[in-house]
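Subject: Interface between my chains keeps coming out wrong

I've been trying for a while to get a sensible model of this assembly. When I model each chain on its own everything looks fine, but I need the whole thing in one frame so I can look at the contacts. Pasting all components below, labels as-is. Any help appreciated, I'm running out of ideas.
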Amino acid sequence: MPRVYSLAALIAVWALAAALIQSRLLPGPLTIGTTILADVRSGELPFHMACTLGRVVSSFAIAMVLGIIAGYAMGRSKAIDRYADPWLIVLINMPALVTIIFAYIWIGLNETAAILAVAVNKLPNVMVVMREGARALDPELDEMAKAFKFTWLSRIRHVVIPQLAPYLSASSRSGLSIVWKIVLVVELIGRPNGVGFVLGSAFSLFDIARILSYAISFIVLMLVIESLLVQPLERRAIRWRRRPA
Amino acid sequence: MEVVRGLKLRLDAGSFGALIGPSGCGKTTILKIAAGLDPDFRGELRTPGSGRFGIVFQEPRLLPWRTVEDNIRLAMPAHAAGADLTDLIEILGLGAHLARYPGELSLGLARRTAVARAFALRPDFLLLDEPFVSLDEAVAARLRDELVALTARTRATTLLVTHNLDEAIQLSDRLFFLSDRPTRIIVERSLPPPRGTRSRELIASIGDEMRELVARATAKAGGD
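Reply #2:
Try treating it as a single job with all components included. I did that and got this:
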């Protein structure tokens, strides 16, 4: 309940400020609400949101799959870690904007470049978290699985993945929020659609109402995904831990 | 790191051997070698029967995210996954706990689950690494009795690692005393059958005899 009150207070402060200032630069909640409704009806908002969401999902998936494999390998093998670590450091310290620009220059102003640029930005973060997870794997359980001749698949399924679950959920959580922020930048720079593109053109027109409507709609969508998808999965993964010892 | 060198250990099929020695003398290393878990082992290892073995580690090593029953069944080979475990579970008194998670179990119950897991795959060869350590004496005594009952039924060749002489005498047919650095078998003795039912007095007198043998062997080794 405190969350609801706090959110209501935020909206109230906003409405009050807008009413006091009476400026085109700070439209009130009501104006935003009607803008959102109008754009939903015209189909424009759902279209751009779908474009952005598609990019978020694909680049997130690519970054997670590659990051899990690479991070796990680095965590399990010192040799691989020694060779891959410098690359990882370069990747971590590469500004998102630089990656995006190079992707557009080298690959072209297209969807592939956009998605890859975002995935590369997210990748090192997944690698770091998964490397920690792989390092934290319990060698005693590993030995147990060997002694009882677990198959490769059941070792991964019953021994490795449950131990990696907290790391998986941490990296996908932080991943989702990083990815959607970078997707907007990628769209702003080089895509003809998506929320980032709309924000860019609204910025050149000083159309604050549109900027706020799209931003708020997208934040809400991400919160819904987080609470309907990420959190339930997380709860499922740690079910066994909630029982009293 | 080299822990053990030039050690020869032979155990008759179907018998129960105990490896006794001070902590840190390489007992667990020998057990791991027997289990094929030591990748650096250079030597010869021959195991009885089908080579199917069960192992009980010093720590229960259960999967915390799986119930007691899943922990037992997941360790079984695929073709035996549906096997009837009623007897095993009854002997070990796990019936009421099958749906619980390892985090909810006492150490005694967790050990029993680990013992059930080792027996569930019907091993020809059974390795036990201090399975009674840090249990209350009453709980340990009960688990020892259960183990006697289970090994009598399965006739698995068993190797027990322990630092507790009385326990070793109670359970085994053959004792191997290890020395510390270098790890060597300094005394090896067979015990008269039947095992498992030796009286407290008998255990105490065998124990005294063994302690004297070991002391003499140690003194002699020191004098070399």
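Reply #3:
Confirming on my end. Chain A touches chain B through 20 residues (CB under 8 Å).
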